[in-house]
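Reviewers of the previous submission asked for a worked example of the structure-prediction workflow described in the proposal, so we include one complete record here. The input consisted solely of the amino acid sequence. No template or homolog information was supplied to the procedure at any stage.
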Amino acid sequence: MITTDQLRDAAALIGGARRILVTTHTKPDGDACGSMAAMSELLKALGKEVYPLFLSPVPPWYQFLLPDPVQVLGREVSEQDLMQDRLGPPDLVILVDVNSTSQLPKFDQYLRQARHPVLVIDHHATSDGLGTLELVDPTAAATGLVVLALLRFAGWPITPQMAEALFVAAATDTGWFQFGNADSRVYRQCADLIDAGARPAAVYGRLYQNFPYSRFRLMLAMLNSLELHFDGRFALQYIRRADFQQSGATYEDTENLINECHRIGKVAASALLVELEDGRIRCSLRSRGSTGIGAGSPIDVSRIAERFGGGGHKMAAGTFMPGPIDQAAEQVLSDFAPYFSKA
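From that input alone, the workflow returned the following structure tokens.
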């Protein structure tokens, strides 16, 4: 849990900084984008020079959270620009929804040479201890709710735009309140965000009824690859580079596709292997405890992800693996086999 002293120190760190660089993990999800948007809006309201930087493109369905043009490392901002502080040397770097070097490709090199303090705001249990000061609450359903706790403590105003961004963070990391982490605390916090100006119906439409046709073509390719193992309790799915070319979809379109197989009643855990252009395999892992291996006994997929330098949550994690994709599949099946042999 986060202490009052930590919240006080974080507020003081932000208050004493003039230029602040804010970033999050690669392949930003709703929690990352929502937390980034809310923090950027807050810092501007506090009179700070803010430099939001993404490490990979923002999915189109989250761009409504970010009214200003999004800067992406390797696109609008070169690695050399970053390393030489051409954005303007910051007094503070804030990492939201991330505390692992494996989720900060190329930016981790900048952190190693940086002399300024680093504030981590996160809710993942896996950690490389990247912060000078860390606000980390693994019991929080989303990093956006840790941001909310900081705002409340410091007495900083929550604008409707910030409230909506934080609502997106909470809603997406709870599967629109379907996952087990959607406890009473989440509902109370989200009620407060609605009172502050968040519009759930409008948000739902933008997030889940606004996809391009190419994403559905990519999902069809993934579903056609579906394999069930261990008496149907484990689902393994693939997206190969050719699938992107044939569908016209992008890497961002893979977000949350892994969850589709959990509509199958017996599936207790799953993996989605995505073949990247550089030959690596992005491995997303999901688990649930209500079926397959016994209620209340979910597989902790973060432990499997950690073996390859990744991490995440007990029920949702990810990592990068070396290719080829068939070899990665064999490794994943081998890692999950002991869990299902216990059932």
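The chain has two domains: 4-208, 213-341. We consider this example representative of the routine output the project will generate in years two and three.
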